[in-house]
Amino acid sequence: MLSLVGIAIVAAGFAARLNPLLVAVAAAFGTGLAAGMGVLEIVSAFGRLFNGNRYICLVYLFLPLIGLLERLGIQVQAQRLIGGLKAATVGRTYLVFFVLRQVLAALGAKDLSGHAQMVRPVLAPMGEAVAAETLGRPLAPEERTLVRAHAAAAENIALFFSEDIFVAIGSVILIKGYLAANGIEVSPLDVSVWAIPTALVAVVVHGARLLLLDRRLMAAKGGRS
Hints:
By secondary structure, this protein is mostly helical. The protein contains 10 helices and no strands. The model has no long low-confidence stretch (mean pLDDT about 80).
């Protein structure tokens, strides 16, 4: 049980708004020391894991590309595109993205979207354009924050509740290993199949939240007209 001290360190560090990197390192050291590892073993584990997962650093290659696209007007083009669709609303736009994100993640293409590549440069500006069209005026700061937050939520929730449908993913292996350690034998395919109902429920629940966002914006339009 002492090995779970890392969770407490993470919770306390984030509650105190400390640097996330320092909190993660402290949690790793706390867990390692509680598990009986020496300092050199912990540092060695850091190096080994970094070397084994160095491909993750490839994401930094996309950042200059995203910056260049923003400079060339990708946000303006996204706003112009979605603004021309008469039936579009913020909730419907985000719901379509939500479903597509789930389908792609279920097929194993979970890295085709993300906050840096899709939400900030494309999805959020599209939502802001539709919201402004709905309200018939520029968005107030709190309305802009609300629309952006729902864009980020659509990405997070869609990915979280659908990535386990793809059987060849690390989280499925983690679930299988945890269950096996507690005497419950399941196959990765079983985990994948049982992730489908959860993903469908996520569509219904979050879809309702997105449609309620449309009603909230319409209420704001009526309140300020």
